[in-house]
Each structure stands twice: as C-alpha cells, then as structure tokens.
Amino acid sequence: MENIKNYINGNFHNPISNDWIDNYNPSNGNVYGQIPNSSKDDVENAYIAAKSAFPSWSQTTLEERSRILLKISEGIEAHLDELAQAESKDNGKPISLAKAIDIPRASSNFRFFGNAITQFASESHESAGQNAINYTLRQPIGVVGCISPWNLPLYLFTWKIAPALAAGNCVVAKPSEVTPMTAYLLGKICNDAGLPKGVLNIVHGLGTTTGQAIIEHPDIKAISFTGGTATGAHIAKVAAPMFKKLSLELGGKNPNIIFADCDYEDMLATSVRSSFANQGQICLCGSRIFVEQAIYEKFKVDFVEKVKQLKVGHPSESTTNIGALVSKPHLEKVKSYIDIAKKEGGTVLCGGNEVTVSGYENGYYLEPTVIEVTSDECRVNQEEIFGPIVTIMPFKTEDEVLQMANKVKYGLSATLWTNNLKRTMRLSSQIHAGIVWVNTWLMRDLRTPFGGVKASGVGREGGFEALRFFTEPKNVCIKY
Ligand code: NDP
User: Fold this and answer.
1) Which atom of ligand 1 lies closest to the CA of 174?
2) Ligand 1 center to residue 140 CA distance, Å?
3) Its pTM surpasses 0.90
4) Which of 16, 98, 102, 146 satisfies CB 3.0 to 4.6 Å to 160 for a cystine?
5) What's the pLDDT at 124?
6) How far is the CA of 259 from the centre of ligand 1 (A)?
7) Which of 173, 186, 182 shows the shortest CA–CA distance to 223?
8) Could you report the per-residue pLDDT of 102-161, keeping only the tens digit for each?
9) Where is the Aldehyde dehydrogenase domain (predicted)?
10) Could you tell me if the CB of 145 is within 6 A of ligand 1?
C-alpha cells in the first residue's frame, strides 16, 4: 500500500484524527493506498506553520525566492518518470500524456514564476501641480489557500502554488482527494530544493472536511480555487462575508466553431485532440462542435472515422490514446449523459459503451463518443459532462452560431476555425469566453491572462495577473 501523509512545517504527518480515505487506481479499480482525511486541527497546524514562516519568507530577497523556485522546477524535472507514473496511476491518464504535458508543465510553472517575480513591478503616479507622487506597494497577502481539482493534478496545483510563493505568501494547499499522490511527492522535492519549513503546507482530505476548513479559516486571507461551478459558488458564499480575496476557475462547456474556409486537415486532427485529450477531462475541451453546413456531412464522416481509431487502453501502454476515467462515480455520471442524449433524440455516431480492457476488467474505461444533436438547447449541449463525449451539429450563418455559442451558462474558452480575418475579429470580440483560440487549441503562453466569465469563474490566473492576485496593492502618497 502506498500511503500518503500531510506535509506540514517541512515534515510528514499522519492526520491527527487518524481518519483515512481509500485511494483508487482507476485503471484497475483497486485500492492502492490511503489518504489522510484531515480535520480542522490538521488545517490549523498547517496554518500555524505557514503563519510562523511568513515574516521571514515575505522578507526573502527576490533573488533568493527565485533561486528556490527554480530549484523546485529542476527537482520536478529530475523526477519526471516517477511523477508521471504516479500521476497516471492516480488519475488514469495515459502515462505518455503525463510525461509530455502534466509534469513538464508543473516544472514550467515553478520556472515561469521563479523568473516572473524578478520582473514584477508596480506603478507610480505623479500628481502634476500638487507636488506629490503616489506609488503602489505590492505586498504579499500572508497565508493563502490553494485548492485544486483532479483532472490535471500537479499541473493545476503548482499553477497556484508557484505564484503564491513567488509573491512572498505562505500557503496551505489541498489537492483533490481523488488524485493526491503527486502533491504528496512535491513536498519532498520542496525540502530538497531548500524551501524553508512552513512556507508550503499540503493537507490532504475531502473537500467537505479539509477543503471546508481552509475556506472557513478566518486568517487564511485569500483562496485560489479551481474546480466545479457548484463548489465555486459554495466557496464564494463562505468566503465573501469574511472579505477574502477569491480567484475561482470553474467549469466550462466550450464551443468548437468550424467554418468551411478553415485548414481542414489541421482542424480535423486538432478537433479530435480538443474533444478527447485526457479522456475529455480538461476544462478547456471543445465539447460542443458546431460545423458550417457546407462541410458538415464531410466533417461528420471524417471525424467519426478518426475518433474510431483512438485506442482505449491501459494508461501504461504506449499505444493508448484514451486511458481510464478518474473514478467510478465519475464514469457513472459521464455514462448517464449518453442515456440522456438518447432520450433527447440525439444520435450516437460512435462510442457510447464501456470498454473492458483485458487484465484490467474493473477499470473505468469508456469509448470516445460523438453525439449528433438537433438542438443546441438539449442537456448534453448545455451541461458540463467532463468526459469523452462531444456533440456535433451544423449551422448556417455566423450570427446563428454566435448565438448558440453564447447560449450556455459557462464562458471559459472557445475555438474558432476560419481563415477569414474580419470574421475572426468579429467573433473573438463577441464570444462570451475568457480565452479564444483561433486555428489552434490549448496553445499556452504562461504570460497571458487565464480564466473564464459567467459561471466559469471570476478572476484571472497566469503571468502578472496571478502575481497581482497574490499581492495586496497599497497606495503611498508623498507630498514634496
Ligand atoms: P470539485 O469542485 O468537486 O473539486 C475541486 C476541489 O475542491 C477538490 O480539491 C475538492 O476536494 C475541493 N472541494 C470540494 N468541496 C469543497 C468545499 N466545500 N470547500 C473547499 N474545497 C472543496 O471539482 P473536481 O475536482 O470534480 O474537478 C472538476 C471540475 O473542475 C470541472 O467542473 C472542471 O471544469 C473544473 N476545472 C476548471 C478549470 C479551470 O481552469 N476553469 C480547470 C480544470 C478543472 P475533493 O475532490 O477532495 O473532494
């Protein structure tokens, strides 16, 4: 059994209550370890460690902070294989994906913010005619909470922690209880990199116990959260009366809008990826595909043919394209949408069934599924499924597709496929989304603002936006 411990004040601890949760391997359905279900007391200990570390960490020179973050980045790189294996085992994603994307990106997050903090600056405003100058002091907030989901475990965990630490805060962090292993391994890497004790504390457990204790803590002054919209709304309700700073990155139901004038082959290959990468469990996946009428029938045939070629298999096999879904309850939820689609009059063009992988019969595998829908208002087109299911439907005009694209409660990202510049400019400005990709998908530059509108969240991560979130601006006005 691979048991996990809390990382508090640089040491590894069992939960005070000795309460544990089973950790499942989604590729075979077996329990392979135990996770602390940390209580308020564990969170309090993490808070106390963070609070004691804060005066010294917040005064560390930028050069020294940067040096430590870069060492953590190198440590992650040095443990690439071990971390990728752990991520794949915990989450069910193909190990090739964890090796190529998840773990390298976790390392980049620390490298990026280790460098960014040396370039971060604040404004000054000269008050002409008043003999005064104002300058903005950007000060770390204190102890902050970072809570992350299971789909990109170390990738999203470090996306929050790295800027929080770079800005001089101390952190109490909780990964998803569904995928805690790489966050646990990060603790040792941080110690090896020389991160002072208490600067980062990682507590494991259920959202409703451990997560709740973090968001309720009166002295944890800011919460950076990525997860579902309902959880985000709950966090806002708890945290708002305490006037905590909040960054909420929530769900999505992103349109993939395809015009007949696009580069067809590039669009086709990328659309397969944007539909099914990570078993469709990426908040940015383009799960609603709208295709211009003129190429709809051709697209339908070509897309389905390509999707049928995707191999569902054990995450450790190098030929696997689609691994296991993250958990049994999640598999059941995703599957339920196939029934809903049928009841709503949708046509399953391919997929729709569970897959039995030989030797791993109890794993959580599902065929990549394409559903043709006749209305954009059906539930499968409106609700976040977060699995290997996409809908397709045709459209006739730009106005029509814009309306359909915007007629959901979410607004995280959108993808446009067109070579028409004026249309690109028109639609990019009118689509309700925090991120628009044109003729590409998931191309990331870590300096850019990242986040959503409407039910996809509030606030922006990425680049200096994240450093602004994790600092409090104070205006100093000097008369001379
Ligand atoms: P959840 O909202 O269920 O959980 C996210 C995190 O919040 C987990 O660590 C969870 O703990 C914790 N949590 C749950 N309840 C509480 C609570 N009361 N107080 C504090 N913390 C709590 O999301 P999932 O893990 O299921 O992740 C999938 C969701 O994340 C999808 O909706 C997806 O769209 C969204 N997402 C958004 C992204 C974005 O950038 N906008 C990126 C990636 C995912 P535990 O799991 O241990 O119960």
Assistant:
1) 9
2) 25
3) yes
4) 146
5) 97
6) 34
7) 173
8) 999 999 999 999 999 999 999 999 999 999 999 999 999 999 999 999 999 999 999 999
9) 19-476
10) no
Nearest to 76 by CA among 50, 53, 99: 99
Is 124 touching ligand 1 by the criterion CB < 6 Å? no
Would you say the CB of residue 386 lies under 6 angstroms from ligand 1? yes
Domains of the chain, first to last: 2-250+456-479 (3.40.605.10), 255-446 (3.40.309.10)
Q: What is the pLDDT of residues 310-361, one digit of tens each?
A: 999 999 999 999 999 999 999 999 999 999 999 999 999 999 999 999 999 9
Q: Which of 249, 292, 367, 461 is catalytic?
A: 249
- Is 249 annotated as catalytic? yes
Nearest alpha carbon, ligand 1 atom 11: 207
The answer to whether the CB of 265 falls within 8 A of the CB of 298 is no
Q: Per-residue pLDDT tens for 205-260?
A: 999 999 999 999 999 999 999 999 999 999 999 999 999 999 999 999 999 999 99
Q: What is the pLDDT of residue 453?
A: 98
- pLDDT bin (cut points 50, 70, 90) of residue 363 is very high
Residue 437 has a pLDDT of: 98
